[in-house]
Design goal:
Layout: H1 2-17, E1 20-21, E2 26-27, H2 31-54, H3 58-70, H4 81-156
Antiparallel strand pairs: 1-2
Helix pairs in contact: 1-2, 2-4, 3-4
Length: 157
């Protein structure tokens, strides 16, 4: 989060330090520099999202896991319902945390796939447009070639 805040501070200073256009109150910015900084912010945000999914949620989940590891159920007396209830509670908490982590990971995977789908769609659209322009160019070139041949034939007669 600190890295994102630092990049946002940099973005703010780039905008504030940019020259002002008189009479209209607008700021002239360097588009490529701003876009590069926005890309860096996106990368940092994505990497922080990944680290959030990979790590257990906060210290509470780590404490629950540590306390669950230290309990040896075989050493507890069978008549002690308090210890048994505590062990059941710890198991339920661990199950709930694993469920939350799984849901978070699935949401993240869905976001990544949606982003990938949007990028692929954009790329396919660009390719189709390029092929359309190319086929039009080829058709026009062929027509020009034919018309120049017809003119050459007419002039030689």
């Amino acid at each position: 989060m600190e890295r994102i805040l630092g990049l946002l501070d940099t973005l703010e200073s780039m905008i504030c330090d940019s020259p002002k256009l008189p009479f209209i109150g607008k700021t002239l910015i360097n588009e490529s520099s701003i876009l590069q900084l926005i890309d860096k912010i996106r990368l940092v945000a994505q990497s922080e999202d990944k680290s959030f999914v990979k790590q257990p949620k906060g210290e509470s989940s780590q404490q629950i896991v540590k306390s669950a590891e230290t309990i040896d159920l075989s050493q507890l007396p069978p008549s002690d319902e308090n210890h048994e209830a505590k062990a059941i509670q710890l198991i339920q908490q661990a199950y709930q945390i694993s469920k939350e982590i799984r849901v978070g990971a699935e949401k993240y995977a869905d976001e990544v796939l949606a982003n990938l789908e949007a990028t692929a769609t954009h790329i396919l659209r660009t390719i189709k447009n390029g092929r359309i322009k190319l086929s039009k160019s080829i058709t026009e070139s062929a027509k020009e070639s034919q018309s120049s041949l017809v003119q050459n034939d007419n002039s030689s007669q």
